[in-house]
Amino acid sequence: MKKLINSADTVLEESLDGLAAAHADILLLGADRKFVRRRNLKPGKVALISGGGSGHEPLHAGFVGHGMLDAACPGQVFTSPTPDQMIEAAEAVDTGAGVLFIVKNYEGDVMNFTMAAEMAGREVASVVTNDDVAVEKSTYTTGRRGVAGTLIVEKMVGAAAEKGMPLAALKTLGDDVNRRTRSMGVALLPCTVPAVGRPNFTLADNEMEMGVGIHGEPGRRRVPLASADAIAADILGAILDDLEPSKGSEVLLLINGFGATPLIELYLMANSAKRILDGAGVTATRFLIGSYVTSLDMAGTSITVSVLDGQSKELWDAPVHTAALRWRM
Amino acid sequence: MKKLINSADTVLEESLDGLAAAHADILLLGADRKFVRRRNLKPGKVALISGGGSGHEPLHAGFVGHGMLDAACPGQVFTSPTPDQMIEAAEAVDTGAGVLFIVKNYEGDVMNFTMAAEMAGREVASVVTNDDVAVEKSTYTTGRRGVAGTLIVEKMVGAAAEKGMPLAALKTLGDDVNRRTRSMGVALLPCTVPAVGRPNFTLADNEMEMGVGIHGEPGRRRVPLASADAIAADILGAILDDLEPSKGSEVLLLINGFGATPLIELYLMANSAKRILDGAGVTATRFLIGSYVTSLDMAGTSITVSVLDGQSKELWDAPVHTAALRWRM
Q1: Domain boundaries for CATH 3.30.1180.20 within chain A
Q2: Which CATH architecture has domain B8-179?
Q3: Which whole-number Å values give the CA distances from B165 to A262, A311, B130, in the listed order?
Q4: What PANTHER family does this protein's entry cite (chains A, B) (predicted)?
């Protein structure tokens, strides 16, 4: 295992300390590093809280800040956070307008966020994301997995919360954005969990895992390595079959790297994906290209398509100031 | 070779097309993709042009936009751009106030930018960056290599140009920022040039290359894999010995990933580096953590320290709106 770490036991803690030092203007750590929270809260705004296993950085802590999350609860690598983390985060950032949990659809996360919602003693609603079209049931999931589309939900709901939208409407909006959003990924190389010390699956030199999950879970099939165009066609075929956008739709295209894929390849994938969308009569008018929802050092990419309308374009374009996404402020 | 590409021959072209599609609000491509330029120029501002071999994305094209570069000339992977690229870029973006070239110290780049400056038929000055303390002479370099510190020069000089600083003063400023800035890197895994198809050097499972260059050039020594703290101490020892910042100095700390290193490890390195700087009586008050000056799919990191003063803090904090760096606008 070749990693820039000191000890497999302290990766999360040390990385969170680095995050907090680097972005002290935006965020700070809760007691015992149970959560990452905005430094400055906005009274009367619904508090948005997300979280999940670590190893997907910058998701979620990198999205804490103006226009996105109020807090993020990091579990150990690929391990759900515990309910006390969400309860303490809610206590810290709820200014009285209630709390919205944004939860990726994994059994541990859903169970722990549900317990936290019941035990928090305050008004809580939840949006569960399940944008991954690859498989209907996976290693840690009943139903579809929540993957890179989660950041789109966090951005759009975050912008609406910033503008004062109340809790029930935010819940409806989040569910709606999730329904308009689909993702699928491919792995070229596996990832290694520090505490395990060896790759969490194996791929031959000429193989890739089509439909891989963000923890290296199996996808649809193990296939021979293919060209960027063929990969984009396969993934977008699955996404568009399921999403069924009407001809002439505008979409947001997210090309996401899994952690070990360089930007030169992600922009090349963006070019392939855009051409295929154009051919399908769908126009990408918003783009996000980079490694935003990662799987430690896995090589590969996911493509996410989110159908836009006037409201969602406005919410996407709205100011955001977090460690990982910043624009218009 | 596992890469998201269609053909080794078209990687650069396709990736540039993806970049241009994704950031059409900021930049556009010159004829035959010879350069990437700002969509909107600012008349009367000195034009800043950089460039170099590709494979280091987002450097340089990702830094084209308000507050940084006016144009970037991408060569093929790890290959200098040719003088006609810089000449045509200068023709496209010089609005009459002259042109500043920002050039990393590699023989091919320096030669080609020098030829372009002589042949451009306009007022041109050049800043050559050489921030890498690892070695005094390298595979493609006489003198020190220009590496991740180049982006700090581009940011600070870019902010000053935006405020109307004239060409001669920008040249002086760029040389001064370069002199205040030192970097050194380490590779854990090699990179693979698409047209070559195999790793450009080999490392045993327990080895790393300390002082590696951004093309995988040899560094100071091949050493056993070490902890993040030990790596940070080694690199910062070399940097601080050379830079000799006075006690109480404020610095900008850049933890740069080489392309295949996940953010969780880079934030952990930031934590190690900050602690060591604190111990040396030097305070990091500005941070940049991410993969900004990469080496294709090389795993590893570089640390850059740049000594700040009132002017350079203001220039660093000034608004920037590029594909890869965005803040305050």
Answers
A1: 181-320+323-327
A2: 3-Layer(aba) Sandwich (3.40)
A3: 35, 41, 23
A4: TRIOKINASE/FMN CYCLASE, TRIOKINASE_FMN CYCLASE
Mean pLDDT throughout A264-271? Answer: 98
- What does the pLDDT look like over A290-304, one tens digit per residue? 999 999 999 999 999
Give me the residue from B62, B208, B262 closest to A259, CB to CB.
Answer: B262
Query: Does the beta-carbon distance from A188 to B4 stay under 8 Å?
Result: yes
State whether B21 and A274 contact (CB < 8 Å). yes
From A118's Cα to the closest Cα of chain B, the distance in A is: 31
Nearest to B231 among A4, A11, A271 (CB): A4
CATH fold of the domain at B181-320: Hypothetical Protein Tm841; Chain: A;domain 3 (3.30.1180)
- The Cα A83–Cα A289 span in angstroms is 33
Cβ contact B227–A6 (<8 Å): yes
Other CB atoms within a 10 A radius of the CB of residue A49 amount to: 30
CATH superfamily to which A181-320+323-327 belongs? Dihydroxyacetone kinase; domain 2 (3.30.1180.20)
Helix or strand (DSSP H, E) at A118: helix A107-119
**Which of B58, B227, B266 lies at the smallest CB-CB distance from A263?**
B58
Best A25, A36, A268 residue to mutate vs chain B (most B CBs within 10 Å) = A268
Q: How far apart are CA B90 and CA A204, in angstroms?
A: 47
pLDDT at A82 over 90: yes
Query: What distance in Å separates the CA atoms of residue B125 and residue B172, rounded to the nearest whole number?
Result: 10
B215 is catalytic: yes
CATH 3.30.1180.20 residue ranges of chain B are 181-320
Of the two residues B226 and A136, the one the predictor is more confident about is B226
Q: Which of A1, A3, A4 is best to mutate for the B interface (most B CBs within 10 A)?
A: A4
Give me the tens of pLDDT residue by residue for chain B, a chain 329 residues long.
Answer: 999 999 999 999 999 999 999 999 999 999 999 999 999 999 999 999 999 999 999 999 999 999 999 999 999 999 999 999 999 999 999 999 999 999 999 999 999 999 999 999 999 999 999 999 999 988 888 899 999 999 999 999 999 999 999 999 999 999 999 999 999 999 999 999 999 999 999 999 999 999 999 999 999 999 999 999 999 999 999 999 999 999 999 999 999 999 999 999 999 999 999 999 999 999 999 999 999 999 999 999 999 999 999 999 999 999 999 999 999 98
Residues forming CATH 3.40.50.10440 domain(s) in chain B = 8-179
CA–CA dist A74, A186 (Å, integer): 25
Name the DSSP class of B196.
T
Determine the pLDDT at residue B329: 84
Cα-flanking dihedrals φ and ψ of residue A135, to 5°? -140, 155
- A:B CB pairs within 8 Å: 188
Q: Rounded CA gap, A112 and A52, in Å?
A: 10
What is this model's ipTM? 0.98
Please name the residues between 43 and 62 in chain B that touch chain A, using a CB distance below 8 Å. 54-55, 57-58, 62
Please give the positions of A annotated as active site: 56, 215
Q: Is A329 on the interface with B (CB under 8 A)?
A: yes
